[in-house]
Amino acid sequence: MSTTTELQKDAGTAGTSEETLLELESMRVFYGAIEAIKGIDLTVRKGEIVALLGGNGAGKTTTLRTISGMLQPRHGQVLYRGERIDGIKSHELVQFGIGHVPEGRRVFSTMTVRENLEMGAYRFSSVDSAEMDRVFTLFPRLAERRSQQAGTLSGGEQQMLAIGRALMGKPELLLLDEPSMGLAPLIVQQIFEIIEEINKQGTTVLLVEQNATQALGLANRGYVLETGEVAMSGPAADLLADSRIREAYLGEGAA
Ligand SMILES: Nc1ncnc2c1ncn2[C@@H]1O[C@H](COP(=O)(O)OP(=O)(O)OP(=O)(O)O)[C@@H](O)[C@H]1O
Ligand SMILES: [Mg+2]
After folding, report:
1. pLDDT tens digits for 212-237?
2. Considering only CA atoms, which residue is closest to atom 9 of ligand 1?
3. Do 194 and 160 meet the contact criterion of CB atoms below 8 Å apart?
4. Which amino acids bring their CB within 6 angstroms of ligand 1?
5. What's the domain range around 222?
6. pLDDT tens column, 191-200
7. Can you give the pTM of this predicted structure?
8. Residues 92 and 180 occupy one common structural domain
9. N or C terminus: which one in the chain shows less Cβ crowding within 10 Å?
């Protein structure tokens, strides 16, 4: 029903290579008879931050869960470095270097911060202490609380831990599902700054957000999902400037 609008421009990929990491081709995902993703195409290039935007129920989480192998597409393909990965189970996909920070964080609440981080390194035979140091440098708050039970952390700290845990798996591509959900503006800003820093240090990011302004402020490119279809896509700056986006997602009604 919705028309796809590709905003044409070469801008918005500064600092990124042309190498394609992730490609969704005509991907359709069903829950029983219900079609949640109705044939989407999406590309993430190495080095980029790509924002995946859209309202409640648009299909953002379903898309991430399909990329990381928790759901299988009924039609279409998921390609990683040119190789088909749909059909590969999620625990095997970790070996490909795809990290997923799920919606709602889900830290292991009775384990300490340090133990949670160690769990994130499960694809390796041992925990890389240099990697843990890197996480503690990115998140000094976690360093201070390394022996604290994760369930007693604040919401923002739990989000930091969830991201830190994914980083312990040394992902090449990091999938983040609404990291700003339910957090105060100051903490959201800190989390976004850290996502930017993680990207600068070499990790490609696919960022799901309802917080369109901040996500596009960070991203190279963006896609807007509406009821399982890509309604718009293009360089982040163009999407930010687009009046339809401003009206629908940035709370700016037509003047
Ligand atoms: N386990 C499920 N069984 C049946 N339908 C589901 C299931 N999970 C999601 N859906 C449906 O699929 C559609 C997309 O849901 P999804 O969770 O991917 O949206 P979302 O964009 O992540 O939304 P939100 O911003 O609220 O997290 C919705 O209509 C939802 O009701
Ligand atoms: Mg969701």
Report:
1. 989 999 999 999 999 999 999 999 99
2. 62
3. yes
4. 31, 34, 36, 54, 56-62, 103, 210
5. 18-97+173-250
6. 999 999 999 9
7. 0.91
8. yes
9. C
